[in-house]
Amino acid sequence: MIKIKSNKIITLISIFVLASIIGGLLFYNVRANDQTNEEMLFDNLEPFFKALNLVRFEYIKKDIDLDIVIQGAIKGMLKALDDPYTRYMDTQTLKREQEDIFLGRFGGLGIIISMKDDQLIIISPIEDTPAYRAGIKAGDKIIEIDGKPTEGMGLDEAVDILRGEKGTEVTLGIKRENVEELLGITIIRDIIEVKAVKKEVMGKNNNLAYIRITTFNVNTKPELEEVLNEFKKDSDIHGVILDLRNNPGGLLDSAVEVASKFIKEGPIVHIKDRDGIVATIESKGNKYPEWPLFVLVNKGSASASEIVAGAIQDSGRGKLLGEKTFGKGVVQQVFNLNNGSGVAVTTSEYFTPNERSINHIGIEPDILVESVEDDEQDMQLNKAIQLLEEEIN
Fold it and tell me: How far apart are CA 57 and CA 347, in angstroms?
């Protein structure tokens, strides 16, 4: 029971409305037969309602914005889950994620960031962007932004700061593995337009198809099909190098489509939900030759990239070359709230076809070739070319 001073009574209607709002957020997807759990949760809500009433009627400022208070409560609830991928998104952030990143055009630096151990970490820089050209690397930790410490800074807050008008600059204080001093890197913002798929012909005899996938968005499938159709018509192509390095991932459906272009049949990925129910997504098949295949990966290869890499490795369709991948093996769904904001919730974990979990683990390559600082020769790519030519011959 909520106790309130007699001279500050809240009407039953107000309590009902407030309970409906909070209850709706907490029980959005609760099953009807979970009545006992619902009763327990309502009992646990009493301290929340009491704290909310204290803020409304005892806090020194009377004109508080209740919407901001509720948003703060939601953020706090999600942060308590200790899951960097489950988070609240205001209207602006939700629109940015749904339209800009997935469609391949947004303004900023060209980095994909996440939270790890309460620290902002760069999953990967996006190729041919200001951050990439400035020397930002996968695994870099952002300690400062324009001299302001990032400790305690949320992911969305950091993204909002890093975004900005084309031509403006921002300085990042970077902590890099095996480098003692804090690196100060100044980057000039630009409009980031990401082309999902790039191609090139390589090898001594110009008989190797090099395919670079930078992201998994709605454009990836049609762009990849166009490239593969070109190589299919070229009778001189005898092998393929698929480059997934520094690819931070993207859409699950896009990853399945890409993997299916190389794997004709069999499982691509297993998805396990909170009830332990496993759904297996099979290959959609393809019409392309089974060229000998090498896949380049590194610690910037994450999420959807790891789905594709794991499927190719487990199926025996090709070999992975490079370094261990990032290790993001969970799937998020975005749920819209009635005020235009949304909540990204981790709803399931994925496993490779051989039922390997890679979350916080990553995927070990078949052939380990570590990257070298300022590697202008690209030793990983050169090694893949050498091994692929040997296999073809």
Answer: 37
303 labelled catalytic: yes
DSSP of 43-69:
HHTHHHHHHHHHHHHTSS-S---HHHH
From the list 300, 210, 195, the residue with the least C-alpha distance to 246 is: 300
**Chain position carrying tokens 């006992």:** 36
**pLDDT tier at 27 (50, 70, 90 boundaries)?**
very low
Block residue for tokens 């990966």? 297
Instruction: Convert the pLDDT of each residue in 119-142 to its tens digit.
Output: 899 988 888 899 999 999 988 999
Structure tokens at 228: 């593969």
Is 328 marked active-site?
yes
For 105-193, which CATH superfamily applies?
A: PDZ domain (2.30.42.10)
Catalytic residue among 303, 305, 315, 341: 303
- Domain boundaries defined on the chain: 6-64, 105-193, 197-392
CATH classification (class only), 197-392:
alpha beta
- Helix, coil or strand: residue 104: coil
Find the DSSP H helices in 119-165. Answer: 130-133, 155-162
Q: Considering the candidates 137, 221, 324, 328, report the single residue annotated as catalytic.
A: 328
Whole-number pLDDT of residue 339? 85
- Active-site position among 140, 261, 314, 341: 314
Q: Residue 370: which pLDDT band, with cuts at 50, 70 and 90? A: very high
Return d(Cα 79, Cα 342) in angstroms, integer.
Answer: 15
